[in-house]
Write a structure and sequence with these properties.
13 helices; five-stranded parallel β-sheet; Rossmann fold; alpha/beta; seven-stranded parallel β-sheet; 12 strands; 307 residues; 37% helix; globular
């Protein structure tokens, strides 16, 4: 059978697939839609990351396909209902990149709370901003609010607790008496309560109607003064211009944004020299180790589906 891979994948996992099937591995194919559509017509399986949009003309072209493997967990780039209506299974790499994302959240939270890790250039130039940078905040004792308490949220909670943080969480799909809260020692709270109480808010929710535009200017204004906002979920959930405006007024204490409405992010004067803002190119879930875990998990699941 023919397996088409349109974005990067661990080459050892590609070799595992190629040992049993005819594999076309083209990590830049996502940028050539006509070629992707042409190849898709012959594919029995398609493996993608987040940039390949499995909908419209591409979905129509998948006439032989039995399974879509997603090298990640978000499914907003895949018309899941459309795939399933054509008999195609959609398989995400649930849990395989949780540690990578959780470490990103904890790292950026600590960096932004402390506020002392951007002084290299000034110190190297003979400046000594000790007074300005000596009032950073410690992580221990702070409250981490997790919105979305799935695999990533739970892994993040475990790491935060190890640092002495208090952890509260909200998940629209869970109730306060769901056993996982007692099992993890995490307090369940309502969404508004979390936004009001947390020193650090981290988002781990899919992009759906209920989360689109969730953190708008009004929501950000209701956050605790000096709070940190971290978004590793999806763009469109957070209003980035509102984040920048709040950082400039000093209401938000910091923000780490890894996902954007459109990727790559277009150049923006609003974001240039914005204080206490960390921008990364959708890499929170991508590390050498997580890429290996994600790739081998999807390779195994696709082989099972084709068996």
């Amino acid at each position: 059978m023919k397996i088409l891979i349109s974005e990067f994948m661990d080459e050892r996992a590609v070799a595992q697939l190629a040992a049993k099937h005819d594999v076309s591995y083209a990590p830049t194919l996502v940028d050539d839609m006509p070629a992707l559509i042409a190849k898709a017509a012959q594919a029995d399986a398609l493996i993608v990351r987040n940039r390949t949009q499995v909908r419209g003309a591409l979905l129509t072209a998948l006439t032989r396909c039995k399974v879509i493997g997603r090298l990640g967990v978000g499914l907003d780039n895949i018309d899941v209902a459309g795939c399933e209506s054509k008999g195609m299974a959609v398989i995400p790499a649930t849990g395989a990149n949780a540690l990578s994302v959780a470490e990103y959240v904890i790292t950026t939270a600590m960096m932004l709370l402390r506020g002392a890790f951007t002084s290299t250039a000034s110190v190297a130039n003979g400046q000594w901003p000790r007074g300005a940078l000596g009032n950073g905040r410690e992580t221990a004792g702070k409250t981490l609010g997790i919105i979305g308490f799935g695999s990533i949220g739970r892994t993040t909670a475990r790491l935060a607790q190890g640092l002495g943080m208090q952890v509260i969480a909200f998940d629209a799909m869970l109730d306060a008496d769901t056993p996982v809260f007692q099992e993890t020692g995490v307090k369940y709270v309502g969404l508004q309560e979390l936004i009001l109480q947390a020193d650090v808010v981290t988002l781990h929710v899919p992009l759906v109607d209920a989360t689109r535009g969730l953190f708008d200017a009004a929501c950000i204004a209701s956050m605790k003064p000096g709070a940190i906002l971290i978004n590793t979920s999806r763009g469109h959930i957070v209003d980035l211009p509102a984040v920048a405006a709040s950082l400039r007024t000093g209401h938000l204490g910091g923000a780490a944004i890894d996902v954007f409405d459109a990727e790559p992010l277009a150049a923006s004067a609003d974001l240039q020299d914005c204080p206490h803002l960390l921008l990364t190119p959708h890499i929170s879930g991508v590390s050498a180790e997580s890429n290996e875990r994600v790739s081998f998990l999807i390779a195994e699941k696709v082989l099972e589906a084709l068996h």
